[in-house]
Amino acid sequence: MLMKSMLISEFIIERNLDRCIVCRACERQCGFDAHQYDPEDDVMVSIDENCVGCQRCSYICPTNAITIRRNPTEFQPHAQWDANTIHNIMKQAETGGMLLAGMGNDRPYPIYWDHLLLNASQVTNPSIDPLREPMELRTYLGRKPDRVEIEETDGKPRLKTKLYPLVEIETPILFAAMSYGALSYNVCRSLAQAAQEFGTLFNTGEGGLHEKLYQYGDHAIVQVASGRFGVDEEYLNTGAIIEIKIGQGAKPGIGGHLPGEKVLADIARTHIYSIEDLRQLIFALKEATDYRKPISVKIAAVHNVASIASGIVHAGADIVAIDGFRGATGAAPVVIRNNVGLPIELALAAVDQRLRDEGVRNNVSLIVSGSIRNSADVIKAIALGADAVYIGTAALIAIGCHLCQKCHTGKCSWGIATQDPYKTRRVNPEIATRRLVNLLQAWSREITDTLGGMGINSIESLKGNRLHLRGVGLNQVELDILGVKHAGESL
Amino acid sequence: MKKIYVNEEYCINCHLCEVYCAVAHSESKDILKAYKREKERLVPRLVVEMANPASLPVQCRQCEDPPCVEGCISGALVYDLTANIVTSNPDRCVGCWTCVASCPFGAIHPVCLDGLKFSIKCDLCFDLELEMPACVAACPNGALIYEEEQEWQ
């Protein structure tokens, strides 16, 4: 029996009829059928309960006639049972299913980036003007030697030490693992092109590499996950770095949630049960690629992240990628997305410290992800000990994502998280590539300027330099874990 | 000579090209006034054709040897040698619609307004003092391109 849903609309579509010209663009663009044309009265009609708040209609409307608002209907105020909680219970009572969502944890946990402040030069040390002085954001990913020996031949210095495979990046910002499958081909192509243009890397995610994107292999981190989707010798040898995906921040402990609409094929799973298994896989991949490529291992930040990272380093990884609990996804059970894992700031500080204590920090590069929102977050991450950061959500926002969190439905009105050929064409790779390159350029310029103010001329000099950070509004435990002094404390 | 080209891979079927074409050729040139006061007179000179999932706007190709001009019985359609476009003069048009039938692209549109029948077509906004045709400027996804004609290889 079809019963009236007890759920109330999350959004209200406000249509200014004085401005609406009934061009029907909103109707054609909405992926969720929230706009309909009524031919009898020649007006546009809103179906509020279908609206997901993605703002595609507001964007496309030529007369700015549409405003999307949160439904102002209020429940009886209750500190324990807020609207979101009631909504979720209603939904589960109607469907009997797990709640699914896309993107990252949206709950109001502390954001440690906003409790960290950077230093600047005043009087006692000179700042650097990046417009006059050379500044370097270039960095290298992979294992660094314990010491460097140089010999002279014919009066010229030569590096005697044999280096491990290193991958050069022009800015410490990489595009996070987002697979073809979760995202449309046009989005993957834009990420690949932007990475190539700017001299950084994109990550295939666990879905393999589209054959047309093999040409961007020099700028690809190719992921190998438990599903082994699209993994073969050519794939491994095409990428600049191979990344073993153990876990991701949005859903530590689980994974591989592609909704049926997006799935083309599935492959039986194999799991990794121990560090020994991991070591075997790392060296199997090194063998398969003649020890020419750094091997990265990506894990979700969980409670014992420092020990786990240490185990990964000792297992022979060249890069450890850690994804914080705000890391996004194409689909995750809400209960896991919102309740499992660790803030990346704390995980990063703990891992960097542990690896330093063990004297193995130079054996790996650290890449962190899961909540990097702006250039300041990048700088703070590097000061906390990261070599580079992954950006996923920020990159998608640059392309058009408005964070409606409905990736798992495959209906994305922005043409990003969908395979519907009617919608994927909404991302023109030429435009999207330009927007991504602009974002990388803007952040890189801001990083350069901030470094200059700190009196530092190279990103390498900031790495792990926590004396450039001070905490505000943090308790002693938090400060100890972050390894930073409180604002006001001197050296 | 510049022409409008369509990259149908990136046409998103929003029809904003039609809207802005109609507004550019309206009395007021203002989107709200045009749609509120002269809606029945607003006829876009290009039409978005759709074959799900693909769509693309179709507009006059400005042929150098145009069948519409050849077929025109009243001299309303002429090939303007200075602007390099096919122009239509509604005052001379008698509404026989030979041009509509003869255009191989279906780019000429029959109109009935105030008891008069005439045809209209894309004029590349040539007398509107715009940087580029209104439809090209309006496309949100770069699917319409205004560029020099490429020689056929």
Please tell me about this protein's structure.
The complex is a heterodimer of chains A (491) and B (153). Chain A has 491 residues and is an alpha/beta fold. Chain A is 30% helix and 16% strand. Chain A has two domains: 63 residues, Alpha-Beta Plaits; 348 residues, Alpha-Beta Barrel (TIM Barrel). Chain A contains 15 helices and 21 strands. In chain A, strand 18, helix 10 and strand 19 form a beta-alpha-beta unit. By secondary structure, chain B is an alpha+beta fold. Chain B folds into two domains: 76 residues, no CATH class; 61 residues, Alpha-Beta Plaits (2-Layer Sandwich). In chain B, a hairpin with a 2-residue loop joins strand 6 and strand 7. The two termini of chain B are 17 Å apart. At the A-B interface, helix 1 of A face helix 1 and helix 2 of B.
What does this entry show, briefly?
The complex is a heterodimer of chains A (491) and B (153). By secondary structure, chain A is of the alpha/beta class. Chain A is 30% helix and 16% strand.
> Multimeric state of these chains?
heterodimer
Q: Strand order across the biggest sheet of chain B? A: 1-8
Topology, number of strands of chain B = 8
Number of strands of chain A: 21
Report the structural category of chain B. alpha+beta
Q: How many structural domains does the protein architecture of chain A include?
A: 2
Give the CATH topology of the largest domain in chain A.
TIM Barrel
The biggest sheet of chain A, with number of strands, parallel, antiparallel or mixed sense and barrel status, is:
8 strands, parallel
Please work out how many helical segments of chain A DSSP would assign: 15
Identify the overall geometry of chain B: globular
Proportion in helices of chain B:
10-25%
Spans of chain B of 5+ residues with little confidence (pLDDT < 50)?
Answer: none
